[in-house]
């Protein structure tokens, strides 16, 4: 697997370090010289100093072979532009960081599904703690081989119209479905429930391999 990260800030750095533990090939694009030096010292990633909105820089990063493009610079406009270029080039999996509600709406209208809003995520976690719900611990699994994952069922998904148990049968790992989300509604998992386009499945997975 190959991942291109646009933005070498705190998020880009931590993500690169975690992906390296999974032996995933990573390239980071960062404009700041000093930050590039730090990335080189703290990761094994291929670091490119440059503007991720520059097609030549993206070409140097070999974006056409990227399995994922992750846009996590500190600027929403830059992230959207890089994501748009990536979509035009043909990258299938694009993750975009957006904080301003207007840009988040624009991103959704443009067809980007994997959006990360750090402020919203942080507020949700803090609210849960205040309410006495220990949600944060669910995202802090110490065992590197255990993850909680969200599987989106779209038209291209191999799980479309398949029973939920097909996910368990297809995976080479130990997988436990936690819940199904449909239009904000939570559906309790049933092994024979047939998955529909637009639904999301949350699973707890003990990994032997990175992908299905």
Explain this structure to me?
The protein is an alpha/beta fold and 212 residues long. It folds into 2 domains: 2-121, Rossmann fold, CATH 3.40.50.720; 143-206, Regulator of K+ conductance, C-terminal domain (Alpha-Beta Plaits), CATH 3.30.70.1450. It is built from 8 helices and 10 strands. The longest helix has 14 residues, at 76-89. It is globular.
Quick summary of this structure?
This protein is α/β, with parallel strands linked by helices. It contains eight helices and ten strands.
Q: In percent, how much strand structure appears in the residues?
A: 15-25%
Shape: globular
Which regions contain 5 or more consecutive residues with pLDDT less than 50? 135-142
CATH topology name of the largest domain, in short, is: Rossmann fold
Give the domain tally.
2
Number of helices: 8
Spatial gap, N to C terminus: 13 Å
CATH architecture of the largest domain: 3-Layer(aba) Sandwich
Q: What percent of residues adopt helix (DSSP H or I)?
A: 25-40%
Radius of gyration: 18 Å
Mean pLDDT: 85
Tell me the total number of β-strands: 10
């Amino acid at each position: 697997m190959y991942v291109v990260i646009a933005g070498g800030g705190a998020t880009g750095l931590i993500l690169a370090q975690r992906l390296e533990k999974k032996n995933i090939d990573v390239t980071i694009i960062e404009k700041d010289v000093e930050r590039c030096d730090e990335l080189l010292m703290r990761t094994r990633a291929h670091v490119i100093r440059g503007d991720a909105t520059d097609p030549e820089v993206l070409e140097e990063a070999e974006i056409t072979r990227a399995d994922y493009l992750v846009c996590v610079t500190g600027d929403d406009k830059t992230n959207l532009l890089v994501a748009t270029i990536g979509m035009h080039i043909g990258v299938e999996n694009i993750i975009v960081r957006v904080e301003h509600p207007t840009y988040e709406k624009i991103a959704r209208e443009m067809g980007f599904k994997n959006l990360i809003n750090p402020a919203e995520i942080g507020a949700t976690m803090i609210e849960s703690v205040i309410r006495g719900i220990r949600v944060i611990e669910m995202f802090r699994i110490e065992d590197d081989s255990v993850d909680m994952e969200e599987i989106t069922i779209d038209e291209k998904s191999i799980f479309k119209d398949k029973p939920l148990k097909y996910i368990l049968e297809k995976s080479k790992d130990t997988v436990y479905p936690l819940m199904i989300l449909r239009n904000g509604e939570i559906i309790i998992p049933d092994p024979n429930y047939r998955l529909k386009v637009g639904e999301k499945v949350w699973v707890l997975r003990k990994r032997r391999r990175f992908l299905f």
